[in-house]
Amino acid sequence: MKLYRKRSERRPWEENESEGAVPWLFVLPSLLAVTVLVLLPFIDVVRRSFFSAMSGQFVGFKNYLTVFQNDAFRLAAGNTAKFVAVCIPLLLVFSLLLALLVNAFREKRGVFKTSFLIPMAIPVASIVLLWKVVFHENGLFNIFLGWLGAAPVDWLDSELTFAVLVFSYLWKNTGYDMILWLSGITAISPALYESAQIDGAGALQRFFRITLPGLMPTLFTITVLSLLNSFKVFREAYLIGGNYPNTSIYMLQHLFNNWFADLDVDKMCAGAVLMALVVFLLIMLLQRFWGREAQNE
Amino acid sequence: MAVSETSVGLTIEKVNKWYSADSHAVRDMDLTVENGEFMIFVGPSGCGKSTLLRMIAGLETVNGGTIRMGERVINKVPPKERDIAMVFQNYALYPTMNVYNNMAFPLKMRRWKKEDIHRRVTEVAANLGLTEYLKRRPGALSGGQRQRVALGRAMVRQPRLFLMDEPLSNLDAKLRVDMRREIVDLQRRLGTTTIYVTHDQTEAMTMGTRIAVMKDGVLQQVDAPRTVYEKPANLFVAKFIGSPPMNTWEGEHRGRRCIVGIRPEYITPADASDPGALRARVSGVENTGRESMVYLEAEGLPGLVMAADAAFRCGPGEAVGIRMDQEKFLFFDRETELRID
């Protein structure tokens, strides 16, 4: 859509000169907020990433080099990448299966939709308390494992803490993603399934040839949203392990937090720019992939 | 008429369908569709014609009675094993596949070899004038082209039965007339038993070898279009088939009170001097160029419609003389509404 047309292109009946400004007027409030709260600070962050925080001198890419050589950064970036790589496929598949299951219920669908959304509404702080009760070394989960004859595990401070974090993320986001999948599923015309049935397609063929291709646009939205949500899991990680949790869940945000506390603003800015770049590239890549997908078929 | 080798006839016996206790969509339906026949199901919305078609397709369960394809009872046979092809009202083309893949889909599902699929799809596409669109997706096609793709997808296989659920209702008037002829030609060439659902009585009259008129889930009459038109089984059929509908009023026949009906084309203008002429006042005229529909008011009769020659000139408010062809009167029982011979 073209928001603005040159004067010469205007039709004679379009007398109103201010018409071109109207769309901008609608965008203005949110544009203003985004500019003041996100864009300008981010530009400042980019600027700071090239200066020394102590002396205020221009240092070129030195901050970036320091960040790359920093063990804590490597650990945090690695953990974050691992978390994203493990969680998103799991979440996508799990929530899709759940959505298909809920979709199969015709009458009680509403009840399921709401109940699976409840985790979204519970504040992180209170749910982490529950996780502590469940996953503590003397907690409920270990008692349960004890009945099965297994030795207790320190879920909250060991290599396995990563699993707890993954679980926590899945628990919180599955319902939300399921709703997104459901909206995609209901958008597929039922006549397509009937037609496919008559054309000789079985249940699996209908799923792979109609449902899945029909859900491709939804998949893009869900992947991007889940990717962005996965960075929010810091709250759980922080509440479980504090500033310096088990190394398996030491996330980028822990690092930023600690750099901030240590006034390492220059390193923090460089790290933030890097992260923003990676996320931006990831989303662009996804979009390209989907754009091609849409043309190919 | 050549009958396709794969085609079969269809027997429907005492078929019933309930959606809920108080919604009886199809009642005690008895109908035989001959092998190779072009059968039309026609009736107003909600008469059960689509439900019946969907039961034949296997998309709805049958609550009572049997449906047989050839000799085989198919009540519980899943749609994919019935070997039928269906054209849907909204075409139901697969939006993520291009035209080629849409048409190839039924063949792929039946594990045809790739080269056979290619040969068959290109052949059918050429037949329907779709060759240049094979790479396009349905979203990039016009309504008429989508309609053709839907037909093509049904035709690639030689099914035992074609089912069409109001396939022309989404097309504009001119295209509808063209496609009507094309479908009739196609059916005649292929010789496959076809069941065609429509609410359009022109399609019903012009396309089928026989038409089945339905109302409230009950079959009213099955016969050749001309017979249904000339000898409607009851008042409903008389008024539903034919446009504008038959004129009816309460009258007398052989000393018995009944409903009298006459088709608009059997009312003709008459001179005032004609002794048998009836005096009427014109209340409106619709001239289509080919003929004139004249709406009349005559004493003792409800509003009448006369289909007169386009050359017949008159205006609202004018008094005219009309003549009814008594030979063409039809009489219906007042209680049962059945036609009296």
Automatic annotation (TrEMBL), chain A:
A Gene Ontology cellular-component term: plasma membrane
Occurrences of domain ABC transmembrane type-1 (ranges): 77-286
Membrane protein topology class: Multi-pass membrane protein
GO biological process: transmembrane transport
Alphabetically ordered keywords of this record: Cell membrane, Membrane, Transmembrane, Transmembrane helix, Transport
Pfam families: BPD_transp_1 (PF00528)
Domain of life: Bacteria
InterPro entries: MetI-like (IPR000515), MetI-like_sf (IPR035906), UgpAE/MalFG_permease (IPR050809)
Transmembrane spans: 21-43, 83-104, 116-135, 178-195, 207-228, 265-286
Keyword Transport: yes
Location in the cell: Cell membrane
Keyword Membrane: yes
Family statement drawn from the similarity comment of this UniProt entry: Belongs to the binding-protein-dependent transport system permease family.
Protein's UniProt name: Sugar ABC transporter permease
Organism: Lawsonibacter faecis
Automatic annotation (TrEMBL), chain B:
InterPro entries in the record: AAA+_ATPase (IPR003593), ABC_transporter-like_ATP-bd (IPR003439), ABC_transporter-like_CS (IPR017871), ABC_transpr_MalK-like (IPR015855), ABC_transpr_MalK/UgpC-like (IPR047641), Mo/tungstate-bd_C_term_dom (IPR008995), NA-bd_OB-fold (IPR012340), P-loop_NTPase (IPR027417)
Top-rank taxon, per record: Bacteria
Residues annotated as transmembrane: none
GO cellular component annotations of the record: ATP-binding cassette (ABC) transporter complex, substrate-binding subunit-containing
Cross-referenced Pfam families: ABC_tran, TOBE_2
Alphabetical UniProt keywords: ATP-binding, Nucleotide-binding, Transport
CDD domains: ABC_MalK_N
GO MF term set: ABC-type transporter activity; ATP binding; ATP hydrolysis activity
GO biological process: carbohydrate transport
Domain ABC transporter: residue ranges: 10-241
Protein name per its UniProtKB record: ABC transporter ATP-binding protein
Organism of this sequence: Lawsonibacter faecis
Lineage, opening ranks: Bacteria, Bacillati, Bacillota, Clostridia, Eubacteriales
